[in-house]
Amino acid sequence: MRRRVTLAVLGLLVALAALPAPAQAINLPIQKLERGEKPPPGYRVAPGEARLAADRVPEVRRARRAGQRLRAEVQLPLYFGDRRYEVVYVEGDDVEIDVHVSARSGRVIEVWTGPQANDLLSRGYDPPVARSLNELYVWIPLALLFVAPFVDPRRPFRLLHLDLLVLLAFGVSQIFFNRGEVEISVPLVYPLLGYLLLRLLLAGLRPRERDAPLVPVVPLVWLAVGLLLLVGFRITLN
Prior knowledge:
- The protein is of the alpha+beta class.
- It contains 7 helices and 5 strands, in the order αβααββββαααα.
- A 5-stranded antiparallel sheet has the order 1-2-3-4-5, with helices on one face.
């Protein structure tokens, strides 16, 4: 009976930990400008000049030579700290190229193409997604706490240990994603997902009885207390 109650409490705490963080409004205000407008207060470069600077970017020229029908929009991206224009090149409903131009010098400071043209989260801006959760002094202890209850030192070649390493390996992809290197981050995920798919198929098509407990060393009561502390830590971090 006590074991069932402990498992029920663990299940409840896991559900609470999996809940999304409280919704917070992330306002990304954008003000569109016409080409002939005067510079806004504090800006030296006019919107038309920013558009001309962006039009000379090699990526824009190549796209137009390839026959892409790009529609340019000059915007004020107020979610950046410095004064800049954002010249967005749209084809249909998709942003194909995003060019940032300094509003003081007229110099092109950023050019984004492909998936990163329409996705701020994949550009590697600082701070990254999840902010302090990506710091090594937070991420490494949490990773160790995740695998510790399932490690059986008496059976080092347990298949579950490999499963845990595969789950932790997703963090390598996250590191490259936070750096804005999506061409490395995305391919790294596919082998891991392939392994998990194979394991799920084997578990579903060829189920077998466990020959050892899932949690070999740590008592369930300890897990319940530890998970409660981690939930509190997560709420505090949010």
